[in-house]
UniProtKB/TrEMBL annotation:
Pfam families: DUF3458, DUF3458_C, Peptidase_M1, Peptidase_M1_N. It catalyses: Release of an N-terminal amino acid, Xaa-|-Yaa- from a peptide, amide or arylamide. Xaa is preferably Ala, but may be most amino acids including Pro (slow action). When a terminal hydrophobic residue is followed by a prolyl residue, the two may be released as an intact Xaa-Pro dipeptide. InterPro entries: Aminopeptidase_N-like_N, Aminopeptidase_N-like_N_sf, PepN_Ig-like_sf, Peptidase_M1, Peptidase_M1_dom, Peptidase_M1_pepN, Peptidase_M1_pepN_C, Peptidase_M1_pepN_C_sf. Gene3D superfamilies: 2.60.40.1840, 3.30.2010.30, Neutral Protease Domain 2, Peptidase M1, alanyl aminopeptidase, C-terminal domain, tricorn interacting facor f3 domain. This is Aminopeptidase N. Keywords: Aminopeptidase, Hydrolase, Metal-binding, Metalloprotease, Protease, Zinc. Aminopeptidase N is involved in the degradation of intracellular peptides generated by protein breakdown during normal growth as well as in response to nutrient starvation. Residues 20-183 form the Aminopeptidase N-like N-terminal domain.
Length: 884
């Protein structure tokens, strides 16, 4: 395998202006006939035409209707001497969708045929210049059996359809927008659609369709509503209208990713389309809303303006994640619901991206090199990329950001561009901003990997009545990168009196205070900021709303944190103070090797938070959730996952017992009245009630008291929605109560024919808190269950990924059995689906941070996979990096 480097980028030697494709569709053998109008790029010297192709069976090649000599070289089809500067290339080849278990290119799922082309799947359909800076206008004719494939879809507009001999029919589609091949899509299947016409602000009518298999139409209402809301939002917030006559979403059960933004024809993992109150949880409803929005928003940020090369992936992904996060916040509504969204996003960032930045796969938001681009659809490119965009938004303000977006589209609509182009547009639209003044320092966020450490120390001078805050930053070395430069860090802050009052903020040199919250801009390695008129000791509330993706060391004591927990006006920092108090106790218990004994101030702080009148239940749920084992593991070294689990479980036991009466109050108080709505208000109440129930069952399991487990079983049986049913089941399973087994059996019997619900059944068992190796043993048993398969990515993720990536104590065992299973399954999966396997392989990324005997055993398992000769380049890259 070869390394592709960003600095080696060259413009394409040829352009493809139009692509006229015909598919004779068949699961065993599909014939692809392609007619391409090609033009030489006259800016470059004459070169051979080199086309990408993978797993194709070539039948013929014609240039301007004549046969031409060609050769194969390094997986490319090379035509040394194309006739002229502009010519027609005709290619005919066959492919086998049913043999395509990689789910990249054209593949079979159920009885239908579907495509996935990002990043490099189009070359598995036909020979092409399969790179995002080559954009063509596509006309696609689909021919196939009318019974098997009654629905034939491709991008753009339907221009013709009709019947053919032999029980076949055809459909012809034309997409007027030039697009890169990764946005191409085809669907041939037996589907039904929910349809809706909408009128956009310009007065144009558009047809929206959500396609699913028969029998699933009643689960498409939420996806359709989310799509309509997304269209309205993008027009209102960014003046970006729907530019298509028809916008289609198609749900596919076998899908490597969440969804795909193909122009006008989005393909979705069923998980992000299908939902009814009986089968989907509040979290699922939220996920659908945000993924539908994400893919829809790509129509502008990704499709109208796309990436010049795959190193620029965050240009579209970071920006589009930022947009879907903002959309979800606007949909959630109230300030506290927005804060709940933000906390969720930051938790995900810190549990997935921070470990990535600290491990062997650390890479900049704009990577410099890759072996397999599929390995770079990462938390860094997506979530850290979104944080980089969010910092720009913080620096230029909401209006300034909208102006930057407008300039970006004015300059680049219809082009394939770079991250630099986006940052430049943002800066040029806001010339007076700190972003524009320090653009070079800001852009290091794209170039330097690693999570910055932000150190903050305050010094109160009683005589001068000043408070001087000294901020400094340090960026750790990462594989292949050292000696890094300071980055621009926006630090949002407030100062509180020890009684919790917000203080007016006036910096030295200013005429008057400027409110009680502001953003300091750190651009150097170290800078000091002096506030005046500070008559007493203060508690700083730094990095409000998580204003930069950094690790903060502010030296605050528990007493300081208790002030913030009780009084901070910034909901994020209030939550953060509670997390830090909990983390301090976990670390202390790990340090002295004794059982945790929770102190009264902490328990009382948690109690008053839970009981605080008027505080959002969703926020209470988050504030009463202890930092996860994965998060804690990143705060320490030589991690012993078993010990960590024991300490955290003991803390949960104590919170369950000490707050028993309060949990019972919370359960009673947060029952939802009336019909099910997946909105922020109801889902917050359900989340807190379910948390309370889990705590009550936990306490009951400790004391042997039967009432709460009985109530949980009753709730499990009677629940009218999946959130409550699963919550009750999880309470029993989480406490290892004897009622868990009958409940699991009943759940299986009820939902065995609902694949997405069955995924939950597998997942629930894989993520149960480990106890004496029972959870690991259960996962091994479930691998042999007739409903388990590695062929369906959702099923594989539900059981194996959840075990290895989300249940440290079940996975990291002193007998190394988890690692043995990991290695076996990486190898087995790799032969079926390399993208899935390499993703799974990453669950051992952080092996170097483990204590012995885990570390050596993990290394041995990785080395065993590395010794395999026939690994895919996807998995090879992950394994090699892990051992470097
Ligand atoms: N581009 C897709 C998305 O992020 C996934 N590859 O929406
Ligand atoms: Zn995306």
């Amino acid at each position: 395998t070869t390394l592709v480097r960003r600095e080696d980028y060259l413009a394409p030697a040829y352009w493809i202006r139009t692509a006229d494709l015909t598919f004779d569709l068949d699961a065993t053998k599909t014939i692809v006939s392609s007619k391409l109008a090609i033009e030489r790029n006259s800016a470059l010297p004459v070169q051979p035409l080199r086309l990408h192709g993978e797993d194709l069976n070539l039948l013929r090649v014609l240039v301007d209707g004549q046969s031409v000599s060609f050769r194969h070289e390094d997986g490319l089809l090379v035509i040394d001497a194309p006739a002229a500067d502009a010519f027609t290339l005709e290619i005919r080849n066959t492919i086998s969708p049913e043999k395509n278990t990689q789910l990249s290119g054209l593949y079979a799922s159920g009885s239908g045929l579907f495509t996935q082309c990002e990043a490099e799947g189009f070359r598995r359909i036909t020979y092409f210049l399969d790179r995002p800076d080559v954009m063509a206008v596509y006309t696609v004719t689909l021919r196939g059996d009318a019974k098997k494939y009654p629905v034939l879809l491709s991008n753009g507009n339907l221009v013709e359809q009709g019947t053919l001999d032999g029980g076949k029919h055809f459909a012809k589609w034309h997409d007027p927008f030039p697009k890169p091949s990764y946005l191409f899509a085809v669907v041939a299947a037996d589907l039904v659609a929910r349809e809706q016409w909408v009128r956009t602000r310009s007065g144009k009518e558009h047809l929206l369709q959500v396609y699913v298999t028969r029998g699933e139409l009643d689960k498409t209402e939420h996806a359709m509503n989310s799509l309509i809301a997304s269209i309205v939002w993008d027009e209102a917030r960014f003046k970006l209208p729907l530019d298509l006559e028809r916008f289609m979403i198609v749900a596919v059960p076998d899908f490597n990713m969440g969804a795909m933004e193909n122009k006008g024809l989005n393909l979705f993992n069923t998980k992000y389309v299908l939902a009814s109150p009986a089968t989907a949880t509040d979290v699922d409803f939220d996920g659908i809303e945000s993924v539908v929005a994400h893919e829809y928003f790509h129509n502008w940020t990704g499709n109208r303006v796309t990436c010049r090369d795959w190193f620029q992936l965050s240009l579209k992904e970071g920006l589009t994640v930022f947009r879907d996060q903002e959309f979800s916040m606007d949909m959630a509504g109230s300030p506290s619901a927005r804060a709940v969204c933000r906390i969720g996003d930051v938790r995900a960032l810190r549990e997935r991206q921070f470990p990535e930045d600290a491990g062997p796969m650390a890479h900049p938001v704009r990577p410099d090199a890759y072996q397999a681009i599929d390995n770079f659809y990462t938390a860094t490119v997506y979530e850290k990329g979104a944080e980089v965009v969010r910092m720009m938004n913080t620096l230029v303000g909401r209006e300034g950001f909208a102006a930057g977006m407008a300039l970006y589209f004015e300059r680049h609509d219809g082009q394939a561009v770079t991250c630099d182009d986006f940052a430049q547009a943002m800066a040029d639209a806001n010339p007076a901003s700190a972003l524009a003044q320090h653009l070079g320092s800001f852009k290091r966020w794209y170039a330097q990997a690693g999570t910055p450490r932000l150190n903050a120390r305050g010094n109160w001078n009683a005589e001068a009545a000043t408070y001087t805050l000294t901020l400094s930053q340090q960026l750790p070395d990462t594989p292949g990168q050292s000696g890094k430069q300071p980055q621009l860090v926006p630090v949002a802050l407030g100062l509180l009196s020890r009684e919790g009052q917000a203080l007016p903020l006036q910096l030295q040199g200013e005429d008057a205070p400027q409110g009680t919250e502001r953003v300091l801009v750190l651009t150097e390695a170290e800078q000091s900021f002096t506030f005046i008129g500070i008559g007493a000791e203060v508690v700083p509330s730094l990095l409000r709303n998580f204003s930069a993706p950094v690790v903060l060391d502010d030296g605050l004591t528990d007493a300081d944190l208790l002030v913030l927990l009780a009084h901070d006006s910034d909901a994020f920092n209030r939550w953060e103070a509670g997390q830090r108090l909990a983390l301090n106790r976990i670390k202390a218990a790990l340090g002295h090797g004794e059982a945790v004994q929770l102190d009264a101030p902490f328990v009382e702080a948690m109690r008053s938070l839970l009981r605080e009148p008027g505080l959002d239940p969703a926020f209470k749920d988050l504030a009463l959730t202890l930092p996860s084992e994965i998060y804690v593991a990143e705060q320490i070294s030589d991690v012993d996952p078993q010990r960590l689990h024991t300490v955290r479980e003991a803390m949960l036991d104590q919170l369950a017992t000490a707050l028993q009466a309060d949990w019972a109050w919370a359960w009673d108080e947060h029952q939802v009245q009336g019909g099910y709505r997946p909105d922020a208000e109801q889902s917050g109440r359900r989340a807190l009630a379910n948390k309370a129930l889990a705590m009550l069952v936990r306490a009951a399991a400790l004391s042997g008291e039967p009432v709460w487990p009985g109530k949980a079983y009753q709730r499990f049986k009677d629940a009218t929605n999946m959130t409550d049913r699963l919550g009750a089941l999880e309470a029993l399973v989480g406490a290892h109560h004897e009622l868990a087994q009958p409940a699991l059996e009943r759940f299986y019997a009820l939902f065995r024919h609902e694949p997405l619900v069955l995924d939950k059944w597998f997942m629930l068992q894989a993520r149960a808190p480990e106890k004496n190796g029972q959870v690991f043993a259960q996962v091994k048993a479930l691998l042999k269950h007739p409903d388990f398969t590695l062929g369906n990515p959702n099923r594989a993720r539900a059981l194996l990924f959840v075990l290895a990536a989300s249940n440290p104590a079940a996975f990291h065992r002193t007998d190394a059995a988890g690692y043995v299973l990991w290695a076996d399954k990486v190898i087995e999966m790799d032969a079926i689906n390399p993208q899935l396997a390499s993703r799974f392989a990453r669950s051992l990324d952080r092996w170097r941070n483990l204590a012995e005997p885990y570390r050596s055993a993990a290394r041995e398992a990785i080395a065993r996979v590395a010794a395999k000769a026939e690994l895919s380049s996807d998995t090879r890259e992950i394994i090699e990096r892990a051992l470097q």
